[in-house]
Amino acid sequence: MQFQKNKEKILIVDFGSQVTKLIARRIRDLGVYSEIITPKSINKVKNFSEYKGVILSGGPSTVTKKNFQSIPKFFFSKKIPILGICYGLQLIAKLHGGKIKASKKRREFGRAYIFESKRSLLTKNFYRSKRAVWMSHEDAVTKLPKNFKAVAFTKSSKLTIIENSKEKIYGVQFHPEVSHTDNGKQIFKNFLFLICKIKRKWNVVLQKKRIIQEVKEKVQNHKVICALSGGVDSSVVALLVNKAIKKNLICIMVDTGLMRKNEFKYTYKIFKNKYKLNVKLINASKIFFKKLKKISNPEKKRKIIGKLFIKIFEKESKKYRNVKFLAQGTLYPDIIESKSSTGSKTSKIKSHHNVGGLPKKMNLKLIEPLKEFFKDEVRVLGNSLGLAKDICYRHPFPGPGLAIRIIGNVTIDKIKILQEADYIYINELYKSNLYDKIWQAYAALLPMKTVGVMGDSRTYEYTCMLRAVTSEDGMTADYFNFPKDFLDKISNKIVNSVKGINRVVYDISSKPPSTIELE
Is residue 425's pLDDT more than 60? Predict the structure, then answer.
C-alpha cells in the first residue's frame, strides 16, 4: 500500500534565511503540507500544478548588487499565487521593475509598528492594537513596480506590504513566521485559504503510516541499528522503525559519560522492559573523554563526538549479519542550523553532531524518519505511539550531551560537578510545577573560577549558569521569567550542595541573537 504525500501543497523557495523552516512550520500548523527547495532546484520541479502557492523566503543576499539570487522569469507565468517575505519582497519588486536601495535610514532590525494603507485579502483580520512586526533588513523598496499597490507601511519603510492582486503576487518586508510578529499566522492563513484557496489536509499523526511504509520499502530484509539516546527524538525513531521491521531492529545505547545524572540507566530499563526492544548498552565513556581531552573548540567537540558515535555503531554492526542502515533522530532544525542553503558561511549556525558532525564516508546508510519534523510534531507522533510521557515531554537534550554545556575543556571532574547541579535544577523545576511551562532548561559550567566565601574561608570555584527558555520549535526562543524566590532557592541549593560551584547566574538572552545552547 502506498502512502503518498498530499498532492496539493505549498512550495517554499529558501534564499538562506535562518527561519525559513519556521515558514514551513506555520503552514503545517494550518493543516497544509509544504516543500522547501533552493533557487537552484526550481528547474527540477516537474509538476507545478501540484503547488497551490509559492512563498519566497528571506535571506542574507541583496538585490542591489549585480549578481543576486533569483528565480526564473517563467515562474511568474504559472499563475500561481506568490508571497515574498523580506528578501522575497525585494526580489519581486526588482524583477517587476521596482527600485530597491540600501540605506541606514531605511534599515530596520527588531520590532517595528505597521500601519494600513489600503485593504487587502492578505491583511484581513491581521491588524491588532499593538500592530508590532519583526524586521531584519537593510534594503528597502523605494519605488513600486508597475501594477503594484502599497498595502501597509512603517515609520522607516513606506512599502512594507505590496500587492498585485490581479496577478495574486504579494510581498511583506517583515517576518510573519516568527513569534515576535503579532498575529503573523493570520498572514499565512489569508494567503493559503483566501488567495491560494487550498484545503487543510496535513496531519502529523497520519504521517506515521507513511513513515512506517517508507522504512519497510527502504530496509526490506536488512537489519537496522538505531542510535538510541533516550531523548524523545531517538525514542520515537526506535518505536517507528520497530513497527516497520520488528526483529531486524537493534537499538544501541552508547554511554558517553556525557549524559545527565541517572538518566541513562532509567531509559535503558524502560526500553528493555516496557517496550521489549532489542537494546544493547555500550560503555564508551573512557574513549570519549580521551578524544575530548584538551579540546575546547565547540565545532571540534561536535565533530569528534559525531565521528566517535559512527565508529562505535559501525564496529558494532560487524557483529551482526546483514546490517546496512543506521537510524537516528535528526530533526528539521538540526538540518537548517547545520547546513547553508546558499553556500554562504553566514547562514550556517553550528554543526549538529548528527548532521555536520558526521564523517563524509560511512559504511552504514542513514535512515532519518523525522528529518521533516519539528520537535512538537515529534511529540505528537510519540503520543500516538504510546511513548511514556516523561520521555515524550522531556526537554530537548543535545546529542553531544554535557560536553557542549561545559565551555572549554571537558574533564570527568567538570562533568560530575555539572551533573549534580543540573540534577538539582531540573528536580526543583518539577517540584515547583514549572518544568512543563518551559521548553528547555539546563545548567552549564562556565570556563572561569571566581572568589567566594564559605564558612569564613576563601573559595575559588566554578560559575554555574542556568538557562530556561520558552519556545514553540527551538528556532526562536525567549528566556523564562522565573519568580525571584525560585532563583533565590535554586542558587542557594546548588552552591550549598555542589562542591566546585560558588556562584550561580541566570541567562536572560533570547534566540536570536543568542542560541539556546551555549556551544
Answer: yes
Domains 9-196 and 210-392 equal at CATH topology level = yes
Helix, strand, or coil here: 278? coil
CATH class of this structure's domain 210-392: alpha beta
Q: How far apart (Å, rounded) are the C-alpha atoms in residues 445 and 179?
A: 30
Pairing of strands 169-172, 161-164: antiparallel
Backbone Cα Rg of the chain: 25
Class of domain 405-506: alpha beta
Q: Is 337 exposed, middle or buried (0-12, 13-18, 19+ CB in 10 A)?
A: buried
Q: How far is CA 353 from CA 230, 246, 357, 416, in A?
A: 16, 27, 4, 22
Q: Is the confidence at residue 166, as pLDDT, over 70?
A: yes
Whether the pTM exceeds 0.85: the reply is: no
Q: Tell me the domain boundaries of the chain.
A: 9-196, 210-392, 405-506
Q: What is the pLDDT of residues 86-111, one digit of tens each?
A: 999 999 999 999 998 886 666 777 78
Give percent of the chain with pLDDT exceeding 70.
Answer: 92
For residue 236, the surrounding DSSP H or E stretch is helix 232-245
Residue 151 has pLDDT above 90, yes or no: yes
Say which CATH topology domain 9-196 has. Rossmann fold (3.40.50)
- What CA–CA distance (Å, rounded) separates 296 from 289? 13
Work out the percent of the chain whose per-residue pLDDT is above 90. 57
Per DSSP, the residues of 306-362 read HHHHHHHHHHHHTTSTTEEEEE----HHHHHHHS-SSS-GGG-----TTTTTS-S--
Residue 340 pLDDT > 50: no
Residues marked as catalytic:
86, 175, 177
Q: Which of 409, 418, 399, 416 is nearest to 357 (CA)?
A: 399
Residue-wise pLDDT tens digits, 260-301: 998 888 888 999 999 999 999 999 999 999 999 999 999 999
Average pLDDT, the chain: 87
SS3 state of residue 119: coil
Grade residue 342 by pLDDT with cuts at 50, 70 and 90: very low
- Identify the DSSP state of 30: T
Tell me how far apart the alpha carbons of residues 17 and 26 are, in angstroms, rounded to a whole number.
15
Residue 9, beta-bridge partner list: 51
C-alpha 362: how far from chain center: 25
* DSSP string covering 371-424: TT--HHHHHHHHHHTT--HHHHTPPP--TTGGGGSB-S---HHHHHHHHHHHHH
Contact 366, 221 (CB under 8 A): no
